[in-house]
Amino acid sequence: MSTSTAVTKASDAVVSPVDPDQTLKASKALIAHIKKAVTAPASSGKQNLLADEETTVAETPIWLTLTTKKHIHDSHRLQPSKIVLPHPLNADSESTICIITADPQRYYKNVVASDEFPEELRTRITRVIDISHLKAKFKAYEAQRKLYSEHDIFLTDDRVQNRLPKALGKKFFRSTVKRPIPIVLMAQRPKVDGKRAAVPKGKKVKRDPVENVNARPTAEIVKEIQKAIGAALVSLSPTTNTSVKCGYASWEPEKLAENVDKIAKDLVERFVPQKWNNVRNIYLKGPETAAIPIYQTDELWLEESQVVKDGQEPASALPGKHHKGEKANVGKKRKSLDAEPEAIEEKAKEDEERPAKKSKKAAAKALPLSNDDKLDKEIADRKSRLRKQKSAAKKAVDDE
């Protein structure tokens, strides 16, 4: 397993410390294990009743997993980024493609049907639809599910990318399997002195919605489509674990290893803050296999303040040993844990000898002590009065 050879700072980090030999070994071992697991008969005799059909070796994907020390993104990003690979991922001629464009769709349909468009790519594109027709025809959930199942790859004009979650529904964005891949179809502004020319201010010029569309030439559109369907997609989210599909179990190990090296280098250099100094591990795994490490760092920190210099005692988690500039959490009635035992005993003795003091307010509210003799006398007098009243009332009744 490849590891960093020395403890270095971010400025001194190696460009790509992943060992190609280790990548090739991991690719060979993982492909052999997946082929054995797929082709070998089930020894236990149990079947997975929830699986629709058995997964073949050609359909089994292999993922590169990157773990970092800190999050590489602060929010979920619906628009995936692309990494161009030496060996495209979607080279299957039978996979179908759906292209979602900006208005109008007729222009892009004519581009696909033109002679300049490659025949092998035209047969794979089964639908071209703009955002307006998409909202009108696929508003119902059942229609969205049907569209999802009819196509293998979805490409979208980057101008309408942010409008797709509402138009397509949660079916497309619940996972990254068929999430629309953005492509650039809008024509680029001409360069002036090495910079893009600014859009002229003033009244907008009306153009024919079919003949004069703000789109790239056909050759550039074909190049964008081929780049998107063969690239590795990177979906960033607020996590320390990022997975990118790099190949399939039916590939040759050398072919898979080249894609892994390219993804590992571009993924760190383009998307990871502080580059390789923020990388913890890089793994290679299948859908149901253990992760095989191909790179593991020796640096367990990320910030310079977390590094302990030679001869310096590390910060202790024990009570009483606090970081510099940090106060202990000791209240007014809480005894300090750093105090000496003799001082604590002396303080407790003084508290016992100190007489109890009552405030004037508490003394005023204090109840008088009870007197049982006086209470018995009051009860006897009341009974005597009641007896006299009762005899007087009886005498008055008898006289009548």
Key terms:
single chain, alpha/beta, Ribulose 1,5 Bisphosphate Carboxylase/Oxygenase, Rossmann fold, five-stranded mixed β-sheet, four-stranded parallel β-sheet, 12 helices, 34% helix
Structure explained in plain terms:
This protein is α/β, with parallel strands linked by helices. The chain has twelve helices and 13 strands. It has a five-stranded mixed beta sheet. Strand 8 and strand 9 form a beta hairpin. The protein is elongated.
In total, the number of strands is 13
Give a quick account of the main beta sheet: strands, pairing sense, barrel closure.
5 strands, mixed
CATH level-4 homologous superfamily of the domain at 1-38 and 57-89 and 231-302: Ribosomal protein L1/L10, rRNA-binding domain
Q: Name the beta content range.
A: 5-15%
Overall pLDDT: 76
Shape: elongated
Gyration radius from CA atoms, angstroms: 40 Å
Low-confidence regions: 4-13, 316-326, 328-335
Structural class: alpha/beta
Task: Please state how the strands of the largest beta sheet are arranged side by side.
Answer: 1-13-12-2-11
Intertermini distance: 122 Å
